[in-house]
Write a structure and sequence with these properties.
Blueprint (H helix, E strand, L loop, with lengths): L5 H15 L7 H8 L3 H14 L2 E4 L5 E4 L8 H9 L25 H17 L2 H5 L10
Antiparallel strand pairs: 1-2
């Protein structure tokens, strides 16, 4: 089944906190303590988000991280790509002609699964970090 990695999950938790507190600096320790998760992994994903330009890192005793753009302008897809690189396909053959499928010549599900992949990608692209803060208003519709 399609699953987000722990790294993406922790990144989403961190940006959710930043979006909820846009004028505050949020530290990796704050996020780790709040959710009872690994400080080391939170720190690593925050560094990746900073390198990708979605968060700003402020050094010092009172430092931390904050979003570089309004939360409604950062999508879930942006965060996934910042952490994982190119989103992974639900099947190996979706975006690649370089795979080891023995049924490639007679496969009848590649195209329908490609459509499903596009819908999943569109959903991630359409949902913003702001919607993680206010989930009651979230309605997900697949094209």
């Amino acid at each position: 089944m399609l699953r987000l990695s722990k790294r993406v999950e922790y990144a989403l938790l961190a940006v959710q906190v930043m979006a909820a507190e846009p004028h505050a600096l949020v530290s990796a320790k704050d996020v780790a303590d709040r959710f009872g998760i690994s400080f080391t992994l939170v720190a690593k994903v925050l560094q990746q988000l900073a390198l990708a330009g979605y968060v700003q890192s402020i050094r010092g005793a009172n430092g931390g991280y904050r979003l570089t753009h309004p939360a409604h302008r950062i999508s879930i897809a942006n965060i996934i790509e910042a952490i994982e690189g190119k989103p992974s396909a639900i099947v190996d053959c979706h975006d690649s002609h370089d795979h080891d499928c023995v049924a490639v010549s007679c496969c009848t599900i590649r195209q329908p699964l490609g459509i499903l992949q596009e819908r999943i990608s569109a959903t991630f692209a359409s949902m913003t970090i702001a919607e993680l803060v206010h989930p009651a208003g979230v309605t997900i519709t697949l094209p």
